[in-house]
Every structure is written in C-alpha cells, then in structure tokens.
Amino acid sequence: MGPSYKLTYFPARGWAEPIRFILSYANLDFEDTRVPFDEWPALKDQTPFGFLPMLEHEGKKSAQSAAICRYLAKKVNLAGKDDWEDLEIDAVVDSIKDVGWKIRALRQESDEAKRKEKLEVILKEMLPDLLGRLETFAQKNNGYLVAGRLTWADLFLISVLTGVDHFVGADVFKNYPNLLNLQKKVLEIPGIKKWVEKRPKDIFRPTK
User: Fold this and answer.
1) Binning pLDDT at 50, 70 and 90, where does residue 1 land?
2) Which pTM was predicted?
C-alpha cells in the first residue's frame, strides 16, 4: 500500500508547506504530488474549489491550506487544548496569511516602480508590525506563539515565512531573537529536518 495521504500542489513550498511540515512532524507518510503549471488547467476541475493545495485521504478530497492544517493538527496533538487556544492559533495563522498573500502578489506586479513601492510597504510596515507582535507572543509564551507550547501556528509561521526570503530579499526573522529561536527549534524537529533536507527545489510560476 502507498501513503495514506496525498498532497497536491504546484512545484513550490507556498501554501502547501505548512501541511508538509505537520505531516513530517508526525512522521506521517504522504505522497507529495507537484503539478507543473502548464498541466494545472486540466486538473483544476478535479479539485473541490478549483485551486490548490488539495489533500486526499481515504478516497476523500479537501482544500484550503489552513483548514487542512487544522484537521491534521487535531490528529497529531498540535491543536489547541480548548476553544480559546484554537481561536488564538487561528488568529495568528490568519494574520500570517494576510501578509503572505501580499508578499506573493509581488511576483505578479509587472510595473517595477509599483513593485518597489509595494515591497517598501511590506518591509517597513507590514512585516515589522506582524513580526513585532509575534515576537512579543513568543516572549510571553515560553518561546512559542500560543499556549506556551508547540502548536501548528508555530509550524505555519516558520514554513511560510522562511519561504519568502527570496521574494523580499531579506532574512525576515533577523531582528527578532525569540522568532529566530523558534525557527531553530522547529527546523530541528527530526521529521521536519528530514523533510527540509530532501524537499525539491521550488519552481516558480512564470510571471506575465
């Protein structure tokens, strides 16, 4: 029998990487299917909502990266212990996604002047505001973002923001010691460390 989980995404880390981190953390075997961009139109109608990532398990399909992460986190003890902790985790993840989408949109900006202007806002306003708040969270939570222990919010942050350095041209955590330490702890988790060492290199969607 093959892996019980199949994760389908484009040939990059992107929004699938938090899912890969959770699966790897728990040493759950999964099929990492990477769809070439030119093959995506033929596959699109086979997905629940017409976009990726998509998780398949026991003959069922689901989409939305945060929803998939939340589902898996409950299975591997990375979710909150109560509804309030789950709310705090979701709030952190949603805030990371808000900034992550802005960063990824830079690649679709064909006007170089506008791109530099948007990058300036991200580097000088959006990222410092988000990371400054998360730095405080980590300082108050025993080095983690929520609940004083490792949750999927930590894996989401590290998997997403360590993948955008090439977009923004900067080490996003360099001025945040608690987040740097969190990054180190997450990347030293055996399953995640093994995944990072073997994962394929990103292939980015051609810009228009």
Assistant:
1) low
2) 0.93
